[in-house]
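Changelog-adjacent note: as of this version, every example in the card shows the full chain rather than a window. The one below runs 113 residues end to end.
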Amino acid sequence: MSIKITEECINCGACEPECPNNAIYEGGKKWRMSDGTSLRKKETFFTNLTIDQEPKEKDIYFIVSEKCTECVGFYDQPQCIVICPVHCCVPDKNNLETKEQLIEKKNFLHGIN
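Full-length structure tokens:
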């Protein structure tokens, strides 16, 4: 499952630089699948990877579930959960994924076959 940020978020921004997939964005910011990943190279095949997407939240930081791998393949535990001073980064039970699916997503995002 991916991680989500709850409404308890204080907008400190500590989580954003910790994400190896660049899946965390400030509230109100547009996002792209290609941000912080190797997907720009695949743009010719998937034209939607570099198109701006609407923010998932307006007032608090948010995690793009399509990019979140729970830090699998990078760290032993999700770094946003570790760093968050108010513990508002929590597992998102609406986005359940197996470890294998998370590894596949990581490999897709970072150009690993």
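Structural remarks: Helices lie at 79-83, 99-109.
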